[in-house]
Amino acid sequence: MSTPQQIRPAVTHDVDRTDPAYRDWLKEAVRKVQADANRSADTHLLRFPLPDAWGIDLYLKDESTHPTGSLKHRLARSLFLYGLCNGWVRPGRPVIEASSGSTAVSEAYFAKLIGVPFIAVMPRTTSAEKCRLIEFHGGRCHFVDDPRTMYEESARLAAETGGHYMDQFTYAERATDWRGNNNIAESVFRQLELERHPEPAWIIATAGTGGTSATIARYVHYMQYDTRICVADPDNSCFFEGWTTGSAEATCDSGSRIEGIGRPRMEPSFVPGAIDRMMKVPDAASVAAVRALERAIGRKAGGSTGTGLWSALRIVAEMVADGRRGSVVTLLCDPGDRYLDKYYSDTWLAEQGLDVGPYMTVIDTLLRTGQWQE
Fold it and tell me: Can you spell out the DSSP letters for 292-353?
């Protein structure tokens, strides 16, 4: 497996960057991407109902309302601006991305917006709905059987086509301005200003690239808040092991069943030192949590939302046990209609050997009694 250092963008000389036609194209491409942000409203902060007597508020930042339906819309916008301003994204040349789906959907949207081809390199197990959405936005799906080979295959395609490998797993943490500029962290704190607990005790993120958790954690430290950051990691992912052991070489042999999060290697965009806590979440618990979410607020969400929500509910239970009041925030990453054949399918759960029943009982017991009995 290639190390991240082996797949940096190559220096290209196929474009004369002093050519007025290229500069006009670049300015117009940047304008189009920035205009997309300018005409987009902020995403909602939804409340998950908890007993009033607890004095605890649980919120989900609903990133499913972006134009491309997921948290990755913010990332894709930042990556395109970063690539354009670095001279990596060029007219007529394809953009290639290694992705489990949602980032590719959003990047296909921005590629179409500025008029460049897009190729998504994805595991063959990626949900059919995500593949449909990538193609709807004009992208092409390129499948690999082993998720661990996505990086090398993306780099190979970029070299073969003269395109640019966007490499979200390296650049996610640096393409976004973590000090503000309407990033997700700044948005959360602004929306909480009139709540009874405006500074959350905890924010829980899930990690695919690690870029979101890095942005939130850095912003919290920069603004000198007391908020703690927890990252929830699913089965078949190495982030938890890498964080707990301090090893940047941690790996995992299997791909994550929770699409969008969990990685087989410690990605360059994952910043362990910025994070206060990590929590390992069984896949069956992630699915139980999204089903509990639908029952509580009438919204279906993807499995990564369940991974974060399970961890958030566990932290809520700890606060109840300690008699602490406050607020907790997690993310609604993308809509559940992309996963009707997976996390909402009893047939798929049976095929995967996942029993959500015991985890549903844990959630029901918590909401009824305030006790966590796992």
Answer: HHHHHHS--B-HHHHHHHHHHHHHHHHHHHHT--EEEEEEE-SBGGGGTTTTT-HHHHHHHT
Instruction: For residue 8, give Cα distances in angstroms to 3, 148, 159, 171.
Output: 10, 17, 11, 10
Question: What amino acid occupies position 59?
Answer: Y
pTM over 0.85: yes
Q: Is 323 exposed, middle or buried (0-12, 13-18, 19+ CB in 10 A)?
A: exposed
Return the pLDDT at 6: 45
Residue 5: per-residue pLDDT: 45
Residue tagged 């490499």 (tokens): 167
The DSSP line for 85-119 is HTT-S-TTPPEEEE-SSHHHHHHHHHHHHHT--EE
Q: Which residues of 286-321 are buried (b: 16+ CB within 10 A; e: fewer)?
A: bbbbbbbbeebeebbbbbbbbbbbbbbbbbbbebbe
Domains identified in the chain and CATH numbers: 45-67+182-368 (3.40.50.1100)
Q: Do 188 and 132 meet the contact criterion of CB atoms below 8 Å apart? A: no
pLDDT tens-digit series, residues 229-261: 999 999 999 999 999 999 999 999 888 999 999
Integer Cα distance of 117 and 72 in angstroms = 19
The pLDDT, as a whole number, for residue 235 is: 97
